[in-house]
Design goal:
mainly alpha; two-stranded antiparallel sheet
């Protein structure tokens, strides 16, 4: 809870400072766009959090977003598939990617970093080959899909509306939080991240939990890719989804997920995703901040989160060691008196 309050305080601070330094921040257009982008990145960040909780990492999120984002309009326009058939196909592709990652990591004992880094290269390269490096769009068709994605629920008495992607993100957040905190499988994932060997010796099928985490991550990356292309309307295979995995990982780390595994909250991840988007927005709106330092900010955020995680771990270990030292003399005194 302390971490959630801390990251929420950081979000409020950045919003207040940006509002003071730029009169464009609190405009209805900017707020609606900021909420929409935060919701889209929140979805893929939740997927990254599941992998990180188990002690893994997924560097292929952006490439999966690219793959799905390019193939969906390609299937609809070029192959003339129905929307349902295209949705079924990209869902199967995303789930298959997550399953393959999990199997390679658990059965062949390959490092998650290597597996997903190769995935990052393979999926983007495959996308560029399939669509021949051509920008994919809906060409004015299937407007009902885009209209829903770009639509919003108006708030009574105002011109402001709640973007529809936010509703999907809230649904994903609730389901993910319930799964991670209130189901036995969620507790297994947290236990796996804390101590894989002990979890395995307790009779839990750790391989199954790892595979499940990567399947969830790939599925949410696929959902994110679908919503991103519906939001933008087109996808260029060269750069669509580029570096999105960095935003997802940074949001998870900011939200309290330890890169060592075994710790994290879904609500914290969602707030972390909002912080990343507000930071991007601040860099764009505040005139004296160079727009080309965006990735430097992301790198600093990930590094800062990792440093804080390490310091907190050391303090907790030192405190635990100190309590153990205090208890030992007390026990010895009691034994001597007996």
């Amino acid at each position: 809870m302390k971490k959630i309050l801390g990251i929420f305080g950081l979000l409020v601070f950045i919003c207040v400072m940006t509002a003071i330094l730029s009169d464009r921040f609190l405009t209805e257009f900017n707020i609606e766009n900021l909420i929409r982008r935060s919701a889209l990145f929140g979805i893929i960040s939740i997927g990254a959090a599941f992998v990180i909780v188990t002690g893994g990492i997924d560097l292929s999120i952006g490439s999966v977003v690219c793959l799905v984002g390019c193939l969906f309009p390609w299937m609809l326009v070029e192959l003339e598939w129905s929307p349902l058939a295209a949705l079924a196909a990209i869902s199967a592709i995303a789930l298959g990617i997550g399953l393959s990652h999990g199997l390679l990591i658990t059965k062949l004992r390959l490092q998650p970093f290597v597996v997903t880094l190769c995935g990052l290269l393979i999926y983007r390269g495959a996308t560029r080959g399939i669509v021949n490096d051509q920008t994919q769009g809906f060409r004015g068709e299937f407007s009902f899909l885009r209209n829903w994605s770009q639509g919003q629920i108006p708030l009574p008495g105002t011109d402001f509306g709640i973007p529809n992607p936010l509703l999907i993100m809230l649904l994903v957040t609730v389901v993910a939080a319930v799964f991670l905190n209130l189901t036995v499988y969620g507790r297994y994932m947290l236990a796996l991240g804390r101590n894989e060997e002990a979890t395995r010796f307790s009779g839990i099928n750790t391989d199954r939990m790892v595979i499940l985490a990567y399947v969830i991550c790939a599925a949410l990356s696929g959902l994110g890719g679908l919503l991103f292309v519906l939001d933008v309307g087109s996808a260029q295979p060269v750069d669509f989804g580029n570096f999105y995995e960095l935003y997802a990982i940074a949001a998870a780390v900011l939200g309290g997920c330890s890169l060592r595994g075994g710790e994290g909250t879904i609500l914290g991840v969602v707030i972390g995703a909002a912080v990343m988007q507000v930071l991007r927005n601040s860099i764009t709106l505040i005139d004296w901040i160079p727009t080309n330092i965006e990735y430097a900010v992301i790198g600093a955020v990930i590094l800062g989160g990792t440093i804080v995680d390490e310091l907190v771990r050391r303090v907790a270990a030192a405190r635990k060691s100190g309590l153990a030292d205090v208890e030992k003399p007390a026990e010895s005194t009691a034994e001597s008196a007996a």
